[in-house]
Amino acid sequence: MISNYSGNLFNRNERVIAMDLERHDFQLEELIERIKGHDHRLVALQIPEGLKMQALEMMDEIEDETSAKVILAADPCYGACDLVHDKMKMMGVELVAHMGHSQMNIDSGMPTQFINVTYDGDPTIDPVLPILAQHRAIAQERLAEGEVANLSEEEAQDRFLDAVGRIAPLKGSKLGLVASIQHLHLVFDYKKRFEDAGFEVEVPVGGARLTFPGQVLGCNYSGDDDEIGHYLFLGSGDFHPIGLALHTGKPLAMLDPYTGDASEMGTERIERILRQRFGLIMAIQDSKSFAILIGEKPGQMRRSLALKLKRTLAKHGKKGYLLALEHIGPELIDFYPVDAFVNTACPRIAIDDSVKYGKPLVTPFELEVALGEKKWETGYQFDEIP
Asked: What is the fold, at CATH topology level, of the domain defined by 21-119?
């Protein structure tokens, strides 16, 4: 299945793995009762990419059990920020059923029911325990080091590129336990298992965009705190782990409920991404004109941030052009005669897709570093939508 851009079930950047669909619980019962209770006649179904092979079966079940007709919103869906909105209303749709993501603090302008999908997995913790022990030792070493001050420019840049240890100081070495949405029901059971194995465990609670304790999204890791020294992710693929490692600068282990495999997010991979981001920052330092990308999707629209960046560019004698798009891709923007792009839409576009563009594509933080508004020694700051 393929994981997602949000709090999500499946994302376009993850490897395809064999799914045991019999162990997934697609909870359609409440949706069917709501359709019957309100006598809805036209319903839209929105499904993550990795579940779309099941879409026609779900449509059949809804139509067999109710008087409603179902329209599949077949555009790519990468998270709860990808809600179907005005287009469905114009078609006369009365209710949108959004499958496999948790509700966010956004309003799509349409009545929307979020449908849970859970997976009945029960991997043993034994394979991941040696990795966690190593990561706890790293966190304890960082605790002993304390905060480093008065860095030279070269030392600050080295810290920027360090995959583990960029964010300092720590106040604890707890294990942070997080999961993707379909495995969140396992979190507190596994918290006890890891505590019984000798770890001090915290299930982080994030901001308004995160619905459940222990939840991580592709664009939000706000539950992190300085008592947590390392992490375990319950889930598959590397979409969420890459974002979590970039955001926190902390060691990260992974336990896959589908396969039972244990692994870690290698520092080499994160440092390769950081070197790429460093290179883009250096590449735009002499750029004179920028296109600032604004996402039109309700969950990705950061107009105020885009306007702030335009003012910041003007302060530095540079030109900023505001471009609003629902979907962002190189074929839609590369032809504009600017030196670089700044992304304020989905934060993962700049991180995951920048190599596809003919010009530098940077985050708001990266632009501010290039302009001297922010400093290297703060370490890399992952772009988040709060």
From this structure: Rossmann fold (3.40.50)
